[in-house]
Amino acid sequence: xAESSDTMDLTAFQLHxxxxxxxxxxxxxxxRRITQLTEHLKTxxxxxxxxxxxxxxxxxxxxxxxxxxxSKSDRYKSLLEKLNLRK
Length: 87
What we know:
- The longest helix is centred in the C-terminal third of the chain and has 24 residues, at 48-71.
- This protein has helices at residues 2-13, 23-43, 48-71, 73-83.
- Helix 2 runs antiparallel to helix 3 (48-71).
- The chain contains 4 helices and no strands.
- By secondary structure, the chain is an all-alpha fold.
- The chain has one domain (2-83): Orthogonal Bundle (Helix Hairpins), CATH 1.10.287.10.
- 78% of the residues lie in helices and 0% in strands.
């Protein structure tokens, strides 16, 4: 069942049918995982290894978003709107 929700996330952000590695898809998957880890850390405040992983994911997402903003600003803006990210 988890795979079906992952594939639903992919289809909304894919550039073409077999696209699994574009920056758009990676940002969408990272955002989903970040929200899951944030909820986990609300109940498990002392889980420092998960917190470190969360910070690494946020940094990776930030660098992908920076890449999109510099190279493909139209895709960047549409991605921010779809994911409800601030900017």
